[in-house]
């Protein structure tokens, strides 16, 4: 797909894709976008969830809270998006570490046997509680995965990144649906809008442009693995 493809209109409306396709595209963006764009787009998406659902997600993401955030409102979509970003970053680091270990080969582990319950308790206490947080499975289990996926895909933060930000410089190397969805003609910059609204959601700030600050949270499909 050439650079000029950004200026043509899409032949197939974005709204025609299925929930499964939206989720697959959302997972791709999680592994591709800069962290700042991920956080900004999720703040927008979480704001559209019922407060009860936000509080439910917040409780599951508590292991990623900083001490200064202990008193944060449990239904604050901005704080929730920040915690989600940290959780995804942690998941990506663990996946990268596991991949590196599999490349090197089985590790040789030497350890003394755990002979009593006290030693077992010590091992449990040293386990990182963040490892047990499955961020993608969490969205699925609370019934909001499809909604969050769609809201992120149509967010002004993601649209800005691909039409005006760093993503526009590399859009020719992205999957075809990226160019078809976020080309300038369909993004509302020439009077038409692929999403029915153009830039009205604050994606120009809070990291909407993303910059060259990293390549997302790593790949991996939606397999429920945290």
Automatic annotation (TrEMBL):
Entry protein name: Uncharacterized protein
High-level lineage: Bacteria, Bacillati, Actinomycetota, Actinomycetes, Micrococcales
């Amino acid at each position: 797909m050439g650079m000029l493809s950004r200026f043509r209109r899409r032949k197939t409306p974005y709204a025609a894709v299925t929930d499964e396709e939206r989720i697959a595209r959302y997972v791709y963006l999680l592994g591709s976008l800069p962290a700042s764009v991920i956080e900004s787009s999720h703040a927008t998406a979480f704001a559209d969830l019922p407060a009860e659902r936000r509080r439910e997600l917040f409780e599951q993401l508590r292991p990623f809270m900083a001490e200064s955030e202990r008193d944060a409102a449990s239904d604050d979509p901005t704080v929730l998006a920040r915690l989600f970003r940290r959780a995804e970053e942690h998941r990506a680091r663990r996946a990268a570490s596991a991949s590196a270990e599999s490349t090197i080969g089985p590790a040789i582990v030497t350890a003394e046997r755990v002979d009593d319950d006290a030693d077992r308790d010590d091992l449990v206490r040293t386990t990182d509680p963040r490892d047990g947080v499955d961020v993608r499975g969490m969205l699925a289990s609370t019934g909001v995965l499809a909604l969050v996926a769609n809201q992120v895909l149509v967010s002004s933060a993601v649209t800005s990144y691909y039409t005006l930000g760093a993503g526009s410089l590399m859009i020719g190397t992205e999957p075809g649906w990226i160019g078809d969805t976020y080309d300038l003609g369909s993004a509302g910059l020439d009077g038409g809008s692929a999403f029915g609204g153009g830039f009205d959601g604050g994606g120009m700030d809070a990291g909407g442009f993303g910059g060259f600050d990293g390549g997302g949270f790593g790949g991996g499909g939606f397999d429920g693995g945290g």
